[in-house]
Amino acid sequence: MVYQGTLSRKRELLVHILFWILTAYFTFVKNPIHARILVPDLFYTTYVIVFVFTFYFHYFIVMKQVFKSFRWVKLLAGLFVSYLFFTGARWLTEQVITGMLFNQTNYINPTFINYMLDNLHYSSMPIIFSSFLWLGIYFIRLLEYNKAILEENKNTEIKFLKAQINPHFIFNTLNNIYSMVYFQSDKSLTAIEKLSQVMRFTTYESQKEKVRLADEINYIQAYIELEQLRHQETGFIHFTSKVENEHIEIPPYILSPLVENALKHGATSGESPIEITLTADNQQLIFKTSNEIGTQKKDKLGGIGLDNLKKRLQIHYPDGHQLNLTRDNNRFTAELLIQLR
Predict the structure, then answer these.
(1) Where is the signal peptide (predicted)?
(2) pTM of the entire structure?
(3) Helix, strand or coil for residue 46?
(4) I want to staple 194 with a disulfide (CB 3.0 to 4.6 A). Which of 154, 166, 222, 262 is the partner?
């Protein structure tokens, strides 16, 4: 239950409070007209305590683990673990603790088989109630998550067409290429090739739901090289990458907005270069940009925008990402961590 949507943690807490109020009402209020209320004895009280502990053990631990990657075997194993938790907690409470404190035990010399079979019945109620409440909240959030995905896919194409790449970047690059060709520079063919890579990515790859990490890297490298050609410098950007598996798939434009921001707002100086690093394995990806803020430049994320990037990260990696933006003196750093599995 990582995507909260409208059912926030506070509202989830209210659902739980309402659940326990209704449960207590139907359990203890036997006759509401004549105010007949059931007063629990010692072992009814201990059962309620074990009931609550089992309920939340199953809710927070078992169900969460089962639905990380659902399989029926995991579900059956989870139910069995919760049953053992209930049985063990009840034995500890009603056979050990009450025996020590009150000199009373709920079962008198029970056989192992009889005790386990009897508690198979009693444990079913907290486990079933916990499962249904968890599934109800889970499916509400799942429906909202799917709705958010559909809405995002509906708007993505328009957003990309508006924000994939700055038109001034294209015009400036074309003017530079024109000058290179006119003066017969040996860099003109390289510039045309890099611009072709950028345009190919923005035209075709960006329409896909996910692209290979290698394709995103190639786009970033082509973008950087064109910027270097435009400024006629090569030392003001340092890009290093250490990727174990370039076939990892990520949503397009998850990394490049941070690069565009650094290039747009960073100082183009070889003395204080823009640092861009990427490390990735099959478990996680870490992408970091660091730049000195240029004179009279506000370090506000450009490209598809910080809000849009945060929204896409929340949808694609709801509980598996961290985006940290920090400013120390005159240096701006953006670090993005994505859990791939």
Answers:
(1) none
(2) 0.52
(3) helix
(4) 222
